[in-house]
TrEMBL record:
Domain Endonuclease/exonuclease/phosphatase positions: 2-68
Keyword Nuclease tagged: yes
Name of the featured protein: Endonuclease/exonuclease/phosphatase family protein
Single GO molecular function: exonuclease activity
Species the sequence originates in: Pseudomonas syringae pv. actinidiae ICMP 19096
Keyword Hydrolase found: yes
Pfam family, one: Exo_endo_phos
Entry keywords, A to Z: Endonuclease, Exonuclease, Hydrolase, Nuclease
Length: 95
């Protein structure tokens, strides 16, 4: 399962069709404009997901902390990753 997110400085279609990411099969949910934060006109911030994950909620937050508005997401994991089936790092600590 893969999640790639951040300020990509390009449109999602460019990433998924004209970059090495095209071979990963990632999906790009539509996100509203995030740049510039003072008057958003362009969508340059993306959350790319593998098809095995479900985007439950996406929200552009109206809290300008840089020249881009932040994006909050809620992602649903596949049932096979719920509960105590999550992998535990060596040493047994999750923190």
């Amino acid at each position: 399962h893969q999640v790639l997110m951040g300020d990509m400085n390009t449109h999602a279609n460019d990433l998924l069709e004209h970059s090495p990411l095209r071979d990963l099969g990632l999906l790009a949910p539509q996100i509203e404009a995030t740049f510039p934060s003072w008057r958003p006109q362009r969508c340059l911030d993306h959350i790319l997901l593998s098809p095995t994950l479900t985007l439950e909620r996406v929200q552009v937050l109206a809290h300008p902390i840089s020249d881009h508005l932040p994006v909050a997401v809620e992602i649903r994991l596949p049932a096979s990753l719920h509960g105590d089936s999550l992998p535990v790092p060596s040493g047994g600590n999750l923190a």
